[in-house]
Design a protein that fits this description.
It is a single chain. With about 150 residues, this protein is mostly helical. It has helices at about 20-75, 85-140; strands at about 1-5, 15. Strands 1-2 form a two-stranded antiparallel sheet. Strand 1 and strand 2 (about 15) form a beta hairpin. The longest helix has about 55 residues, at about 85-140.
Length: about 150
């Protein structure tokens, strides 16, 4: 391959001759370098994608583990702390609200159970007094009041 240029102000022409092998050899090196850069960028991209995906899925896995603990152990004491207000943050807020509400309902249920136990005891006491009164009434009917027993 030959190229030439003319020099300004003179009639001189500068010619350059290069072989095709040297041009193609440089292209081969350039191709190798481009493939190497593409592979490097692909590896970096994969690592970034894995880290990004893990950053997203880790809080969801933690929330899932806490939910499993709550459902299996029926222990409604855990809270899921998540500082961001994205979708996972909304899930965390809803989960925490649900846990608080369940705890409130459990407390109310226990209070109602205690009230029912007290009411049951009162009803049993009233029924016992009623039976005693009925027995006294029956005894009064059996023992005539005009007979004196000494």
């Amino acid at each position: 391959m030959a190229t030439y240029t003319e020099m300004n102000g003179t009639e001189w022409k500068i010619c350059a001759i290069r072989s095709a092998e040297s041009l193609v050899g440089n292209l081969g090196k350039l191709r190798y370098f481009i493939v190497l850069i593409i592979c490097f960028c692909a590896v970096i991209s994969i690592v970034v994608i894995i880290l990004f995906a893990r950053n997203i899925t880790m809080p969801l896995e933690q929330l899932s583990v806490l939910m499993d603990k709550v459902t299996q152990d029926e222990c409604f004491q855990g809270q899921f702390q998540y500082p961001y207000k994205d979708e996972v943050g909304k899930l965390a807020k809803s989960f925490n609200f649900m846990i608080i509400k369940i705890n409130q309902l459990i407390v109310e249920l226990n209070e109602n159970i205690e009230e029912l136990k007290v009411e049951k005891d009162n009803v049993q006491a009233v029924q016992k007094q009623k039976r005693k009164a009925e027995l006294k009434a029956l005894q009064a009917q059996i023992n005539p009041h005009f007979l004196l027993t000494h």
